[in-house]
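cache lookup: miss for this entity combination. No prior model stored, computing from scratch. Input as submitted by user K.M.:
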Amino acid sequence: MDAGVDKAETESTVQYVSSALFVYTPETEALVRPLLENSYHVVVRPVAIAELLENPRRRLKDMSHVVVAGGLDVVKEVLQLAMHYGFSVGIIPTENQRDLVRSFDLPENLEAAVAQALRRDAKPVDLILCNEKILLFRAVIGRVPLMDEPSRVSRLSLLTSAFRKFHGLKLLGFDFTTAGDRKVKTAACGCMVLQPRVGTLASRLMARKNSFSDGMVSLAIAAPLSVVGYLKFLGRVFFSSAGRSQRLPDTIGYIRSPQVEIKTEKPLDVVIDGSRATRTPVTCRALPGAVRINMGADAVEGDKNAQATAEKVDVNNLPRDKELDRARRKSAVPFFSYASEERFRDLFTALREDARFDQTYLVLMLLSTLLATVGLYLNSASVVIGAMLLAPLMAPILSLSMGLLRSDLDLARHSIIKIVGGVGIALGAASLVALVFPYNSITPEMQARLNPSLLDLAVAICAGIAGAYTKSFKEILQSLAGVAIAVALVPPLAVAGIGIGRGDLAFFFQAFLLFSTNLVGIVLASALTFRMLGYSAVVRGKMGIGVVAAFMVLISIPLYFSFQRIVENNAIEGRWQKERFLVNGKYLIIQGVQLNRSSDREILVMDILARDMLTRADLTAFKEKVQSNFNRKVVIRARIVYIP
Amino acid sequence: MKTIRLLIVFGLLSVAAWIVGCDRRPAVQPSGRSVKIGVIAPFSGADSTKGREGLRGIRAAQRLTPYLRNGDAVRLVTEDDGNRAVRSLQALKKLVCRDRVSAVMTFSSSDPVLEMAGVADEYRTPILALVATHPDVTRRSRFVSQLPFDDDFQGAVAALYVRDELLIDRAAVFVDPDSAYSTNLGRTFAGKFESIGGVITATTPLAHDRQDFERLLRDVHAGGPELLYLPVHAVEVIRIIRTAHRVGWRPRMMGSDGLLSTVLTQHRKDVYLLDGLLATDLYSSGDPLTAYGKKVQSLYRGEPTSYAVLGVEGYALLVDAMNRCGGRPGRLCINRALRSTHDFTGVLGKIAIGPDGKAGRPLYINAIHNGHMRYVVKVY
C-alpha cells in the first residue's frame, strides 16, 4: 500500500482512504456530488466507466482504492481491473441490487454505503471464474428445481414453484473433474455453483459453509431420481427451519474444490448471476484473494470463522454405474426410485436364504404349531403370541412376493415349496393334536379365528407393507417380530388343523380363509412395497402379481359379507341395549345383547334386568315379542338378573 | 380380445339391469274410480299443530301410494273440528252421510273421539283414531280402532321406567280435571307406581282459572317428590317448570305422548327451559327408520313430528286394510281388515291392531337435550 497516498485519517477507530477514484455510470452519476462532498476528507476523483475503460492505465495511475456504483456488469469490470492493478474496491449498491447487498453486507442507506466504500479496511476476497467470467453469486447449469429459490419464500409459492419446475424434468449425463483429479460421472438435472451468503434454498439446506477466502468452488448437484424422491426433498424444504440442515438432502450431491471442470452430455447454457454467460463444458476455478473489497461487519465476521478445508466430494446420493445408465435412459424422472446396489444385494441374499427349505424351518414350524395348538386349547393368549413369535412363515412369504414382483421363477418356486411345506406341517401337527386331545371344546381363542373379515385383510396389508419395509432395512429388522405378531400366521393354520382333526369342514374353511387372507394380503402388499422402495424398476411378474390380486378379490367377497355381518351385529347389539319389554305387566330391561351365528342358526343371547320374578309364561311372551320385532328367525337365550 | 371385453361389459350391464329391475313392482293401473277417506282434525284453535302436522304426514304417504291395488284413487276429505266434541260429531255425520267416505281418520284428542265412539256403531264406518290414547275409545265401539298404544300401557310403562330405571321412590302427579285423557293417564300412572312400591306424594288438579301457582308448587314440593308426572298440555308443563324454577326447585319431570312434538313445534323459544324433560311418545327421531320410513322421509321436508309420523302410518295402514279387502272395499270389510292387522311395517317398526281395536306397537321414552329430542329407550 502506498503510504504517501494513504494518509490515515482517524475518526474514532475507523480509518478512511485519503483518495479514491469513483467509477460511475449514467444511472449513478447523481452520486458524484455526495462523494465529492464526503465528510471523511477523502479526495474523490470521479470518472465515467466508459472513460475508465478507454484508458485504464492512465485513469488508475497512483490509485489504490476505487469506488464503484453501477450495474453488475460494471462492478465486474472494475473487479476485473482490480485483479490486474491491485487496487481495493468499495461498492455503493444501487436499488434492486439485493444480492450484492446480501453477499458483501453493504448498507442500503446512501450515507452509510459511502462511508463503508471509502473505508480503508478492504478484505481479500476469492473470485470465482467460470470460463473466465466472474461469478459473484451463483452459476446455474441445467435445471436445479427449488435449489435456486430465495431462502425466504412463502410455502405456497414454494409449492407452486416446485410443481411448475418439476414438469418435464430429465436427468442428463454430467462429468465433474476436481482440482485433485477426482472424476465423478453421474446423471443430474443440473448443478449450481454457490458463492457465500447467497440467500437460496440450496445454501439453507446445506450445512457446508463456504467463505470468501477458502479458495474453493462450492458446487451443488441436483439429481432427483424419482418423483417420490423429489417429493421427499420438497417435504424437507417445506418443513425445514430457517437454520441450516446438518444432513445433505437425498437428491443433492456436493463438491468443493479449488477448481471444478463440468462437462455435460450435450452443451448447456451456464447462467452466471442471472445472465446467460457461456456454455458447457465449463471450468470454474477459485482465485484466492484475487481482489480486496470493502465488506460489512457481518460478511467479515462470517469469513473470519471460515477455515481452509480440503477438497470434498459428497456424491453418495447421486446415481452411479448401472443406476446411471438406467436414469439416463428414462425420458423423464420416474415415479419410484431405485434401491442402491448395496441394499439390493443385501436384500436379495437374505430373501434367497429365506426361501430355502431347511431343517431349522421344519423344526420351528412344528414347534410353533404345537405351541399355538396347545395355546388355543388352553385359551391362553400369551402362549399363542409365543407361537406367533416362533413362527418362521413370514420370511418365505416375503421372498415369494419378491419372486413374483421380479418374475424370479427360482425364488418364487423355492418360496412356494417352503410355504406349502410349512402349511402342510402346521395342518398335520394341529390335526394330530386335535385327534389325541381328550376334550373337544371351542375356546374363545379359536372362535376369534373363525370369523375373518375385511378388517383382517387390512391387517394383512399393513403387515405386508411393514414386513417388506423392515426386511429392506437391516437396521430395523428386529421389528419383523412385531409384524409377525400383528398378522399371526400360525394360529389360523393351527385352528384349521384342529378343524381337520375334529372332522368339521366349516371350522377348517373359516380358519383357512383367515390364513389365506393373511397370505394373499402380505404377498400383494409387500410386493408393492418392494416396488416402491425401488427393488424393481417395473413389475416384471405381472402374471404372478395378477393371480395374487385376483385371489385377493375372490377372498374379499366372503370377507366383505363377514364384515357386513360384524357391522350388523354391532348395530343390533348397540340398538338392543336401549330396548325394554313390558311382559304381563313386568318390566324387563335389556342390558346387553350378543348375536352369535353358527352354520345352522343364530342365537340371540340377552342379558336382562328384572324386578319381578319371571314365570315360564312370561318368558314365552317375551320370546314372542322379541321374535315379532326381529326380522329373521333367531334362537333366544336370556340371562336374567333380578334387581332388588 | 375386443369381443371378450364387449361380452364382459354386456354381462355386467345385464346383471345391473336385473338387479335394478328386481326392485320394481308392476305399476298400478288407475281404474278411473276413487275411494274417499275422511280426515277429522283440529286445523284451527290451540291444537291446530296436530291437524296441520298430521295432514302433512298423510299427504306424504298419499304421494307414495296414491292408488289402491285395484286402481282406485284415494281422495281425502278433510273436516276441521277444532278438537271440540260437538264439532267432531258434526264432522263425522257429514263425512259418513254426505261425503260417503269409506273410512275416517281422526287427529282429535281422546275426549272428542270418545264422543265419536258413542255414535260410531250407528254409522258402521271404521274410524281410526290417530292420537287418542284413552283406553275406552276402543271399548265403546266396534268401529273405532287406535293407531297409538293406549293409556293403560303408557301409564304403566311410565311408572315402571321411573321406578325401575330411574330408581325413584316418590312422585307427584298433575292432572287436568277437564280432560278424560289426563285424569285417566294420571290415575293409571299413580296406580301402577304405587303397586310397585312407589309413593305418590300428591295428585294435583290444575284449575283453568287464576291459581296461586307458586303456592301450589310449594305445597307439592313440601311432599318431597323426586319426579313430577305431567300428563297435561304443553302450556301447563311450561307454566309448572317456570314456577318451579322461580321457587328454586328443579325436579325431574316426565310428560306424555305428543308433548315433545308440541313443544318443539309450538314452543321452540321455551325449549331450553325444558332441558332434561322426559316424555313417553309414539315416535323418536333417534330410532332408525324402516325402509318404508326412509321412503316417506324423502318426500317430507324437515324432521317429521310424532303427528306427521302418525299421519303417514294411519294412511298406509288404512290403504293396506282396503287392499286386503280386495275389489271395491266396503266399510265393514275395512273395519274387519283394520282390526286384524299383523306385521304391518310402519315408519319405525312393526304395528299390529288386534280384534279389540287396540294397537300393539312400541312406546318411546324421549328427552329434550340441548333443544332437541333425544331417544332414551324403546319399550315393546
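stored under new cache key. The domain at 152-285+365-379 of chain B is CATH 3.40.50.2300 (Rossmann fold).
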